[in-house]
Every structure is written in structure tokens, then in C-alpha cells.
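Can anyone check this?
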Amino acid sequence: MSYQSLQDVMKQQKGRETMQETRVLVETRGTTGEETISYWFDLPIDVAEFEEKLGIGAESGDYRIIEKVLPYADEVHEHTSVYQLNELDFMYRQLSSDMQEEYVSLLTVFENLEALYICRNVIIVYPDCKSMIDVARQKLMNDPTFKHLSDDCQEYYFDFEAYASHLQEHGKFLVTEHGIFELPE
């Protein structure tokens, strides 16, 4: 994705209400005798505003991140660039609200935000399910394979426990307090 299209998408999203606060405290690296300037920026960071507030170029590397309030804080370090911050913010905002809510749990399965972002469209979320039996019921209702079964057959004869066991043995699932995620193999 080009930098310009990334900027355009971020401008569109800037007005959206975010579920979690995302901001960083950036400090200039003054040479001996120079005053350092610090400023809190909400993400995504507008490069023109960044350069205006701090008086340095975003590409200069003459700044460092000294504090951060981010759900993906572990991926941001002192020398992370403004462009990398904006890219991480973009990836996070592209996750569904269910994935954002369970971001920490999902990181037990995915290596980092980028890996989760890449797989976001193949992860199936069952937000109202508390057990694999609930997932089995939901799959039965939505899977065209089972459409030929009558409601009576589904209700009285279908073995949801066995189907739930089959799903668990042949799939990859993450159970969280807000639902169950079916993950790619």
C-alpha cells in the first residue's frame, strides 16, 4: 500500500471513535545545549503537525518515543518512526472490534500485530458462544451442508457434543471471555 493511500485511509478513520486510546509522547533529541521538546500525539500522527510541533522532520530520526498509551505497546520502541507508528495504528484499526477487544488473547497465538492483521479476514468470530457446543450449534444453523436436516432432526437427534469434539480435534480455536475465535491452521 502506498504511503499516500495509507494517509488517506488514516484521515478517514481519524474521525471514527476508537475503542482504546492510542497516543505517544515524543521527545526531540537535542544536542548539547539545545532544549528538548516533548509533545503528546494521538495516532495516526499527522506528519505536518508532527514537524510543526517539534520543529524536526519525521524522517530525521532526531526524536524518540518516551511514553506510549497503545494496545500494541510492545511493538513500539524508543526509535520507532512516525511512519511505522502510523502503519501499526492502521493495522490495529483494521481489526474487527471483537479482535481489538481480545487483542492480548490473540497475541498468545499470533506472533505480532502484523501476523494477526494478515490473517484477520480468515478468522471466524463466534461472539455469543461460550463453549464449543455453542459453536457447533451456530455452525449447524449457518452451514449449507446441514440445511437438509429438519428442525426436529437438528433439535432431537443431532449430537452437538460429538460435533463440537470433531471441530476441536480438526480445527484451531481460541476461547476467550468475549467469544470464540476459529483460527487458520
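Reply from J.R.: I decoded it. The beta strands are 23-28, 38-42, 63-69, 124-126, 172-176, 179-183.
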